[in-house]
Amino acid sequence: MSTEVPVSTAGTLSDPVLERPRIVRWFAARPRIFDVLIILVCTAPPVAALLLEPHAHAWLGHLCAAGVAVVFWWRRSHPLAALLLAVGFAALNPLAAMGTTAATMESAFGVYTLASLTRLRTAFLGYLAAQAVILASSGLAVLLGTREQPAAVGIDPIALAALATGVAVRASRGRRAAIRNLITMREERAAAAERARITAEMHDVVAHSVTVMIALAGGARAGWEKHPARAREALEQLGTVGAQALEEMQRILRLLREHDDALGADLQHSGHSLPPLEELIAVFRAAGLPVVLDDATQPSEPALRTTVYRLVQEALTNALRYAREATHVEVAVHECDDRLAVTVTDNGRPGTAVESLGAGLGLRAMRERTAAFHGTFEAGPVPTAADAPGTGWRVRAVLPLKGPEQA
Fold first, then answer.
1. Is 340 helix (H, G, I), strand (E, B) or coil?
2. Which of 99, 208, 233, 318 lies in the 20 to 30 Å Cα band around 166?
3. Which among 198-202, 271-275, 352-356 has the top mean pLDDT?
């Protein structure tokens, strides 16, 4: 079972695991403020101690404190170098001679930064290298006479705790990045699927409208002298089809806009704007295709109604293009046993002069529309007697009346 990560409508992550405390987010948005705080924690106490109680080597103490401040300013871009230099300066500070250990705070902050930005192996090796630098730097302090013996090095519980904290922070940051990438990929895939569906809509609109308009224009041209009334009617129908095509194309192109909050709602209810099948049949009859509607069962679900309309539209468009000498084209939409059967059959002969028309996407689009509802699709010659092979063509799609999300 996969774990779904909810995303708010504004595009922000709403998983409680990904939402860090407000103070953490505030400092994350202002990293330099956190750097200044770390510098003050590491340098303010020794500087104050040197000012309140003068030391024979106070100049060296001030110099080491300034060195720690400078290197910690670059701890994010150069974490390993900042760690080693910071603990080196801290161990060389004359105030470090007051205890057996040195550079406790500098080591903790440096190791934490290194562990949160690099791999565990690098962080652990950096911790060991820091202990070696503390030993070497305190030995140099012994040579300079600022302390009597080198600092004791070994297992530093505070530094190890900082190391573990840094590893945990890096793992949490990586998990958040992985979830963000997963959400982005899902959003991109969903957007691509919707735009593929819209592209299929555009193909259906253009293919149907242009084919019908060509047929109407040809009929008006052929009957202009002998049948002016029919030619006028064809021209009027031509204008109507063109206006409808333009309106549908504008609607679909509006859906292709990026960051459109109404995209989902428009896609969900796009079927409401489609005319009934009777009007579609009338358009093809006006274009010269002898179509009859045997039944016109209209599903109530908008997406399914849109699919039925587009299937009939594409099948009739193909019949108008390729069915030669067709005298009968039948459209049937029947409901039976919680399924809807859409059948378009013609008795024409396959044409040869217009084989190159279209982009070859019609049958594939119909098959994909049917598959989206977990239905079955078939297209091919009508089964006939042996003495009349290859006459007629039938397109049949069987769709469950349940939506694809329920199938």
1. strand
2. 99
3. 198-202
Give me the helices (H) in 53-156, please. Answer: 58-73, 79-92, 104-117, 120-144
Question: What pLDDT score was predicted for residue 46?
Answer: 82
Contact 205, 248 (CB under 8 A): yes
Residues present in the chain in total: 407
Q: Is the pLDDT of residue 85 over 80?
A: yes
From 66, 35, 53, 165, select the one nearest 98 (Cα to Cα). 53
Supply 359's token pair. Answer: 């982009």
Reduce the DSSP state of residue 160 to 3 states and report it.
helix
Provide the sign of the torsion angle of the four alpha carbons 341, 342, 345, 351, taken in this order. Answer: negative
Residue 340 forms beta bridges with which residues? Answer: 335, 399
* pLDDT tops 70 at residue 199: no
Tokens 């840094």, residue located: 166
Q: Is 211 helix (H, G, I), strand (E, B) or coil?
A: helix
Rounded mean pLDDT, 115-125:
89
Q: DSSP string spanning 240-307?
A: HHHHHHHHHHHHHHHHTSTT-TTHHHHHHTGGGGSPPHHHHHHHHHHTT--EEES-----SSHHHHHH
Per DSSP, what are the bridge partners of residue 346?
329, 393
The answer to whether 219 and 211 are in contact (CB under 8 A) is no
Whether residue 361 has pLDDT greater than 80: no
Q: Which long-range contacts does 62-69 make (Cβ < 8 Å, 24+ apart)?
A: 64/89, 64/90, 64/92, 64/93, 65/89, 65/93, 68/39, 68/42, 68/43, 68/106, 69/39, 69/42, 69/43
Pick the range with the lowest mean pLDDT from 7-11, 123-127, 300-304.
Answer: 7-11
Q: Report whether pLDDT(337) > 50.
A: yes
Distance CA 364, CA 160 (A): 62
| Cα–Cα distance, 53 to 36 (Å, whole number) | 25
The answer to whether residue 239 scores a pLDDT higher than 70 is no
